[in-house]
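Predict the structure of IgGFc-binding protein N-terminal domain-containing protein.
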Amino acid sequence: MYNIGIPVHEVFVTTDSSCTVNVNVSAPLFDPNFFLTLSLSKHQVSTVTFNANIQDGPGTKLSNKGIEITSDEEITVYAVNKAQATADAYTVFPLDTLGDTYYVITWENKAQFMVIATEEISIVQIVIANGTNIVYNSVIYTARMLLNITLNRYQTFHVYGGPDYTGTTITSNKPIAVISGASCTNIGVGGCDHLSSQVTPVETFGSTFVTFKMANCNKPVHFKVVASGIKQMSI
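Done. Here is the predicted structure for IgGFc-binding protein N-terminal domain-containing protein.
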C-alpha cells in the first residue's frame, strides 16, 4: 500500500522444516519477467526486495500488482513497507486461511485498504461504513452505498484518501486477502507513521482476547474493536 517518500518493499521468508525448502516468488501481472527461486534451510531467513513501482500511489484504483509466493514445504512470510522515518510490517496469511467476508479497520486520517484477488472473476462488494466515503472513477460512494468490483487473479483494488474506513464491509464470491491501515497517520501527538496489517476474515473472529502494553513505553495504548454483529462487549 501507499507509503510516503521513497519506500522499500520487502518480504522475509523462513521455514521450520528440516528439509531444504524451494520457494518461488513472482509478480505475474506486474512483471511477467520477474521470477525468483530461493532455497532455504531450517531457520534461514531470505529477503526479497521489490521494485518501488509495485506500490500504488495516492488514489483509489485497480492494479495488477499481486505477488505470489509458493513453496514445496511450509514457510512463514513477513512483509515490510518502510520509508524514511515511517514503516510497518505484518505476517502474511497463507492462502488456505483466507475468507470471503472482512471488516476494514483503519485509523482516523489518511486511511487506506487493499483487496487482493486469488482467483479469476472474483466479484467483490464493498459496503461503505458510516462517516466515510470512497471516490472511484469520479463517483463518490457514501455511507451504506455499495461499490462493486470484479478482480481477476493477482489483481488488486487500492482504496485511499477518505476518512476512517473502519466498519466498511468487504465480501467476495471467491477467497480474497485484505490489507488495511494508513499511509502516514498521527496517533496522538508526534510525527506520522505508516500502518499496514493483513485483516482476518470474519469466519476467524473470536470472543476472548489477551493483549498487553509495550514494555518501557509510557504512552497511551489505543485499541479498536470491531464486532461482526450486535454484541455486548467487556473490555
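The first strand starts at residue 8 and ends at 14.
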